[in-house]
Amino acid sequence: MIRAIPSNASDNIYCTLLAQSAVHGAMAGYTGFTVGPVNSRHAYIPIARVTEVQNTVKVTDRMWARLLASTNQPSFLNSSEMLPETV
């Protein structure tokens, strides 16, 4: 888990739960999986399923600007790259 702020107690609990689930899956003989919440329950998720669709981030989108502002990261874009494309 990557965060811009120090972790708190619920982060530690969540990471512990993920780690324990991963170890249980590995000890049960599963390979090529990750763990995570699915419908409020922890599940083994095949890596192939996670990586089958590629998402793209629109760097000119407002949500991306909010992420950069909340994490105090520079955008590294030129002013010409920040202009929206015209069709």
Automatic annotation (TrEMBL):
Question: What superkingdom heads the lineage?
Answer: Eukaryota
| Keywords carried by this UniProt record | Allosteric enzyme
InterPro entries, sorted: PFKA, PKF_sf
Record's SUPFAM superfamilies?
A: Phosphofructokinase
The record's GO molecular-function terms, alphabetically, read: 6-phosphofructokinase activity
Protein name as catalogued? Phosphofructokinase domain-containing protein
